[in-house]
């Protein structure tokens, strides 16, 4: 399936054509996934700030990998957390229904990590999800890093570091557990690359691994407590 969105600042094409064989299960499994299969937190009928994140797969030294970043510890919200690149929809991105959210994901990724968007092939867009604590309605945009470019923190006041995580680490049962927040929320957590990935980002990764058939049996009863500042 191929979609092309006219220019707001530039034309965007969404296609799964030419993906590496190892990435095809993701494109195939998530093509028709329903919102409730990804999260119990779904957008309200009205309200919420539109935003997008880039779920970017690459082919690294240890095989398939995902691009993540660590937010600066001085930020007012989600400080120090690991996340996908992304952020709020800006007017320059255009209409959300006409490729604006795809442009937002690519623009934010460039602003945060310095990656070259021209080397990214967008191959899918997941249903909108919701982050109640911040009020964001988030659209995960799936990308294949066809032509990798150098990345790193563009603004240290916002991003502490940029790193990639091998999918093999994310599927390693020893790296997985259940995060328990003092609020009572429970969800998947990953211990990877000296980082604790939890919350919205971990939830999306967990569902991708599951529906792509990459998930390995892990002990969901192993719990990791989170403090009030998380």
* CATH fold node name of the domain at 21-31 and 40-166: Nucleoside Triphosphate Pyrophosphohydrolase
**CATH class identity of the domain at 21-31 and 40-166:** Alpha Beta
Beta-strand residue percentage: 25-35%
Q: What integer is the average pLDDT?
A: 90
Stretches where pLDDT is under 50 for at least 5 consecutive residues are none
CATH architecture level-2 label of the domain at 21-31 and 40-166: Alpha-Beta Complex
* Series of secondary-structure elements, N-terminal to C-terminal: EEHHEEEEHEEEEHEEEHE
Give the termini distance in whole angstroms: 40 Å
Largest sheet: 8 strands, mixed
Counted by DSSP, the helix tally is 5
CATH superfamily of the domain at 21-31 and 40-166: Nucleoside Triphosphate Pyrophosphohydrolase
Summarize the amount of helix as a percent range.
10-25%
List how many beta strands DSSP finds.
14
Measured on Cα atoms, how large is the radius of gyration? Answer: 17 Å
Given the helix and strand composition, which structural class is it? alpha+beta
Shape: globular
Protein name: NUDIX hydrolase
Domain Nudix hydrolase: 48-192
Organism: Streptomyces caatingaensis
GO molecular function, one term: coenzyme A diphosphatase activity
């Amino acid at each position: 399936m191929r979609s092309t969105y006219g220019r707001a600042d530039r034309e965007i094409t969404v296609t799964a054509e030419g993906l590496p064989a190892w990435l095809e299960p993701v494109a195939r499994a998530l093509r028709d996934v329903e919102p409730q299969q990804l999260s119990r937190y779904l957008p309200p009928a009205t309200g919420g700030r539109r935003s997008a994140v880039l779920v970017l797969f690459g082919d690294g030294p240890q095989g398939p990998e995902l691009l993540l970043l660590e937010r600066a510890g001085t930020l007012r919200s989600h400080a120090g957390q690991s996340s996908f690149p992304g952020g709020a929809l800006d007017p320059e991105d255009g209409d959300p229904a006409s490729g604006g959210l795809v442009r937002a994901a690519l623009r934010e990724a460039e602003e945060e990590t310095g990656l070259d968007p021209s080397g990214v092939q967008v191959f899918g867009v997941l249903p909108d999800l919701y982050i109640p604590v911040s009020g964001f309605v988030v659209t995960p945009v799936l990308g294949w890093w066809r032509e990798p470019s150098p990345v790193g923190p563009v603004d240290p006041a916002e991003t502490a570091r940029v790193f990639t995580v091998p999918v093999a680490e994310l599927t390693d049962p020893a790296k997985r557990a259940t995060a328990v927040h003092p609020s009572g929320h429970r969800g998947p957590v990953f211990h990877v690359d000296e980082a604790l990935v939890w919350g919205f980002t971990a939830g999306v990764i967990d569902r991708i691994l599951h529906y792509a058939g990459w998930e390995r049996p892990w002990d969901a009863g192993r719990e990791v407590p989170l403090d009030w500042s998380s």
